[in-house]
Amino acid sequence: MSYVLKHPGEIAWRFAQHLEITAIALAIALAIALPLGVAAARNERLRGPLLGVLGVIYTLPSLAVFALLIPAFGLGLVTTEIALVAYAQMILVRSIVAGLLGVPPALREAARGLGMSARQTLYRVEFPQALPVILGGVRLAAVATISIATLAGKIDAGGLGTLLFAGLDNDDPNRIFAGSAAAAILAIGADLVLRSFERYARMRAT
Amino acid sequence: MTPHPAGAPVCIAGVVVRYPGADRAAVDGVSLEIGAGEFVVLLGPSGCGKSTLLRTVNRLVIPDAGTIEVDGRRVDTVTPETLRRGIGYVIQAVGLFPHMTIAHNIGIVPELLAWDRARIARRVDELLELVKLEPARYRDRLPRELSGGEQQRVGVARALAAEPRVLLMDEPFGAVDAIVRTALQDETLRIHRALGTTILFVTHDVDEALRIADRIVIMNAGRLVQVDTPLHVLSNPATPYVERLMDAKDTVRRLGLMHVRDAMSSANAATDGTIGAGATLRDALSHLLDGATRLAVQDGEIVCGTLGFDDLRRALMQARSQ
To answer: Which of A112, A167, A194, B322 has the fewest CB atoms below 10 angstroms from its CB?
Structure first.
């Protein structure tokens, strides 16, 4: 506890940094996953191979992915974000596909029959209907990203991992505790917030 | 109520639809002329091609051969979206969007057509009144808060929102109970009379078809078997298939399609009961079976004829020989 009391500023700063790394990763990951997920939901032939490739990335040990990326992108934020985005893809794309495929066919039929274009159907009917499932995926991805993002501390990209690894290097259990507790609080907080969004979306969708 | 544009004719010519992998065509060379404002029911067992044929009209199904014209214009000369916004469409599953209010559901096609908000709001209230749902009570509710029958009323209102001149209804009342179904049929007839919209209505329910159709189109295995008025279909089934389908030997059912006005005689005989001129012969039969021997036919206050068993028998024989 002593470290926490002596360095509240340091912890708050690393916490904010961690949040930023996670938020950037999730935003980029979603921007990539949405078109991929829509394409995979629409095209059965694409679905299997795409989810297969993303699944393989997902099973790679995260430390190994960082190690593989460092020669190309060096130490720092870029490597971190690429790794985090790659990890989140599997969870996000799979939830988007599941959400879209779960939309009742009658709604799609009605939308088409009323004269909605494919794009209007997607935005006005399919996304609002799939939103609870997609938000569930975002929640899982957020928690996983927060946890994996601690590795950023090892490659000079900042975040709560910095405290963890500094603690490890200096044999300082207080700092390790501070870093892991803060990461856990961030993960639990993100989970709670996104869970409430999810509940709201589910209420709206049915 | 703003004046609604009258119904448009629909002309189906030589339409063939083949689904990949099927051994016979789902629709096999169907031609059908539907007059402006006509209420036509496509009737047949599941798999006979009636829904597929209906769906070629708004291009949810694209025929492999043949042409379809709505109001003299081929349906493949505009984009499918434009075409569909101009044709009402009601499905059995209703398909109201659960995340939108009733008002938003009804206003969706006008919204796609970029009507201004005030006009959409006015139109929504108008339509809610048309389908007998009080606007103030229903406008802001969500579909899940409505009963099945109420939901389908909203489905009909949504289909009529942009004042279509043709309305397609695909087994719209198949999922509601018998009493609600009858009420919805009556509403549909009332709306048809009020607006004059051309209606194509798919059902496998013979009684429903007899009740609502101006003309019944009987289909089997992708082909038209008979196209005729309800009474004619019952009196003169074109094939044994139609006779079986319609249960055409059912005399009571036939009497339900004929009216006292057309069957009464002017004979000035003694009567021991009365019946309205607009009643069906089925109503007359039950009066006669209740013990009356001859009914006085009243048109308002005036007695304009009389009706007995002999008149019923003559009406049935005439219907068969027409």
So the answer is: B322
Q: Which chain A residues touch B98 with a CB distance below 8 Å? A: 107, 129, 205-206
Q: Which of B249, B242, B243, B201 is nearest to B218 (CA)?
A: B242
Q: Could you tell me the pTM of the whole model?
A: 0.82
Same domain, B278 and B191: no
Give the Cα separation of B175 and A38 in Å (integer): 32
Q: How many CB pairs below 8 Å do chains A and B form together?
A: 64
- Partner-chain residue, chosen from B89, B99, B108, that has the shortest CB–CB distance to A128: B99
Our count of domains for chain B comes to: 3
What confidence tens digit (pLDDT) does each residue in A114-167 have? 999 999 999 999 999 999 999 999 999 999 999 999 888 888 888 888 888 888
Where is the domain boundary, B213, B248, B283? B248
Can you give the residue range of the structural domain that contains B286?
Answer: 253-321
CA–CA separation, B109 and B126 (whole Å): 15
User: Which chain A residues have a beta carbon less than 8 Å from that of B144?
Assistant: 206
B257 lies in a domain? yes
Tell me how many degrees the CA angle B114-B93-B45 measures, rounded to the nearest 5.
Answer: 125
